[in-house]
Every structure is written in C-alpha cells, then in structure tokens.
Specification:
By secondary structure, the protein is α/β, with parallel strands linked by helices. It has five helices and ten strands; from the N terminus they run ββββααβαββαββαβ. The two termini are 23 Å apart.
C-alpha cells in the first residue's frame, strides 16, 4: 500500500498520520432529498478506513494494522520506545468498534500491551460537528480517564481520523497528569483533509 506519512505537531512527543483520508472531493449536485453528493477519491489507506468504519468490512482492520505496524517498525523505528498502546475512545457507539480491532492487532503484532478502556466517553453526544471553541470545553468534560499506569512507560495513542487535533490534545493532557507517563506518541490512520 502506498502511504504518504504526515508529521503531526502537538502536545505529544511525536506523531504521524499515515496519509490523508481523501485525495479529492468534488461536489456533483444534490440527491432527490436535497443532500449534497460528491465524487470522492480516497487515499489507499483512506479507502480501507472508509470501508472498515462506514461499510463494516472488518477484514480491513487486518490490512490497516499491517500498515500501522510496518510504519512503526520500518519507518518510524518506534517499537522499542513504547511500552503500551491506548486506543482513542470512539465518538459513537458501534457494536463492533473498528479501531479497537486495529489496536488489538497492532498490540499483538508488536507484542505490546493495549488498553481499550483507558479512556471512555461520559456522554454519547456527538461533538464532531461543533465549532472548535465549543468542542474543547465539551470534550474536556465528556472524557473520563479510567486507569493509570502502574509503572513508568511511554504510550502510543492510536486514532482513526485527525481533524482539529482536539481529541488527541485533550487525551495527552489527561495522560500528562499521570506521573508514570514518560512520552506520548500519536499514530493516526488518516488526516481528514489537506486543508486541516
């Protein structure tokens, strides 16, 4: 799979997105109900993520996890710098959480412990479409840290899509309150768009 890693700057030690989610999105009109329609061209990893999250093709979790591990080991050289992996909590309930599947596979392949419940949402409220200034206040009060590290170590946070970075910033701030957290690394499958 062809990737275009993008360095993500933030309050974390170091972070990357494997590629953009989409390469192009062209408005083509409206459907019969007045909803906008687009011709979308996805990056390769973006197409896999789209199929995993929105079309329930859970076989894509294997494909994505293989690309994540390959990037961590061969390009980022991060494997020996992390002691555990935390999955970012999902923004909405799904019976099968796609990124939990990816995180489990990455943990198995890297032989690192994972936590799928280190953080949880306090409310099921969707915050993705709120203005940035409201997102930060709401998000800080909608996430709960359920665990603490039992010994010193560095963490890899795994997320699916990067848009504003507010989710990861908030989680990193909560992690930094833990005296046992040394470094925080961030790996995102895709950055939402080139404009973000």
């Amino acid at each position: 799979m062809k990737l275009n890693p993008i360095k993500l700057d933030g309050v974390w030690t170091e972070g990357y997105a494997l590629d953009y989610f989409t390469e192009n999105s062209e408005y083509v009109g409206e459907d019969i109900f007045g909803y906008p329609e687009f011709n979308v061209t996805y990056s390769e990893i973006g197409k896999s993520l789209n199929e995993l999250k929105y079309h329930k093709d859970y076989t894509k979790a294997v494909e994505i996890s293989e690309e994540v591990v390959k990037f961590i080991v061969e390009e980022w050289k991060l494997k020996d710098k992390i002691d555990g992996i935390i999955s970012v909590p999902p923004s909405k309930f799904r019976f099968i959480q796609p990124m939990f599947q990816v995180t489990k596979l990455v943990g198995e392949k890297l032989n690192k412990p994972i936590s799928l419940d280190f953080f949880s949402k306090l409310t099921p409220e969707e915050i993705k479409n709120l203005p940035v200034e409201k997102k930060l206040d709401l998000f800080k009060n909608s996430i709960r840290k359920n665990r603490s590290l039992t010994k010193k170590g560095s963490i890899l946070l795994i997320d699916d899509l990067y848009s504003t970075g507010i989710t990861l910033k908030t989680l990193c701030e909560l992690l930094k309150e833990d005296n046992n957290v040394e470094n925080i690394y961030v790996l995102v499958v895709a950055k939402s768009s080139k404009e973000d």
